[in-house]
Amino acid sequence: MPKPIIFSGIQPTGRKHLGNYIGAIRQYVEGQERGEPAIFCIVDLHAISVPYDPVELRERVYDTAAILLAAGLDPERCILFRQSDVPEHSELTWLLSAVTAHGDLNRMHQFKEKVGKDRELASAALFYYPVLMAADVLAYRATEVPVGDDQRQHVELMREIARRFNARFGETLVVPELVIPEVGARIMDLQEPERKMSTTGGTEQGTVLVLDEPDLVRKKFGSAVTDSGREIVRSPEKPGIANLIDILAVARNTDQAQVEGEFDGSGYGDFKKAVAEAVVEYLAPVRERYAELRPDEAGLDRIFGLGAEKAQALAAPVLAVVRERMGYGAGSPK
Ligand code: AQP
After folding, report:
1. What is the position in ligand 1's atom list of the atom closest to the CA of 8?
2. Total domain count for the chain?
3. The pTM is what?
4. Is pLDDT at 17 greater than 80 in this prediction?
């Protein structure tokens, strides 16, 4: 069996939360052992699809790189780079737009959720977000895309874009597989457990940040919304408890049934305390390593430089074939 080519992107923000960590970053670290190569990209081009500050953007890219390295990504074993350093992503976005239906983009849940009532004012970049995401992955002929459950629809669309491209221009692109974790693919907001934990759409108190101080983590779990019952079981009527069970299972590297068994008969208060302590312990090494890594921007720049070089060496030949198949440049398609 050939090793998978793994690709995933992450937005540049210093406010990475437990959902991002459990749903995505944890999978990246595991992926670098399996992938050949495993490619991880800080998607600063995606970041301009919503209002932003240029000075802040540069800072947040460093923050995100330091979080990923602190979590265990190793530039010797994976390719870690900044999206804007590899122009093939932008070019392929435009080329893929030829086989992307406007109607498909119109149906994207994330676009609808993010624009809300302000559809007319939303940037065209936000509408185009899924095409750029397709280009990110397809430029590397990646076979696996590790993401959280919220990205399911975007990955389905990129698969469709690859199939349409191949049908129209001949077998060129690889149709990648979605990879979501068995437990923790959708971590919910602690205050509003029917909504996913989110950078922009969640509550402050219900969003646990990777870099939160331990006491703040304890406070957030202490005030987590549960229900009026007593049972610690996974059930659709108990989204708050089900979410805490998932979080504890991941933080302790065990399964949900084990957690249910251990806390059978316990009160919600004790359960929430146990989850808080497990998460504090889970995130402490990341926070500590982050504090060491983040100040060294020159070191982070070196990692980006090396990563971009390796990424471009992979993407450029794919782009050359795409251009040729689409009828650009001299000669006839091979
Ligand atoms: N609540 C979540 N549970 C599990 N996985 C999640 N992810 C996001 N939220 C959850 C996964 O994290 C990865 C990186 O996400 P991102 O930083 O690129 O951007 P995002 O998906 O836009 O992150 P947010 O927090 O959800 O921001 P908002 O809500 O503002 O858009 C992705 O793989 C994602 O699936």
Report:
1. 33
2. 2
3. 0.96
4. yes
User: Would you state the structure tokens that stand for residue 149, as one six-digit string?
Assistant: 């459950």
CA distance 168 to 191: 48
> How many whole angstroms from 266 Cα to the centroid of ligand 1?
32
- Same domain (yes/no): 41, 117: yes
Same domain, 16 and 57: yes
User: Considering only CA atoms, which of 223, 232, 274, 218 is closest in space to residue 251?
Assistant: 274
Which residue of 144, 199, 244, 279 sits with most ligand 1 atoms within 8 Å of its CB, as the best mutation to test the pocket? 199
For the sheet containing 79-82, what is the strand order?
79-82, 38-42, 6-10, 144-146, 177-179
- Burial (CB count within 10 angstroms: exposed 0-12, middle 13-18, buried 19+), residue 91: middle
Do 286 and 316 lie in one domain? The reply is no
Residues with a CB atom less than 6 Å from ligand 1: 10-11, 19-20, 22-24, 147-148, 150-151, 185-187, 196-201
Range of the domain at 255: 214-291
pLDDT at 142 over 60: yes
Integer CA distances (angstroms), 89 to 67, 73, 83, 247, 270, in order: 23, 22, 7, 34, 49
Percentage, residues of the chain above pLDDT 70: 99
Q: State the pLDDT at residue 252.
A: 97
> 158: CA distance to ligand 1 center in Å?
17
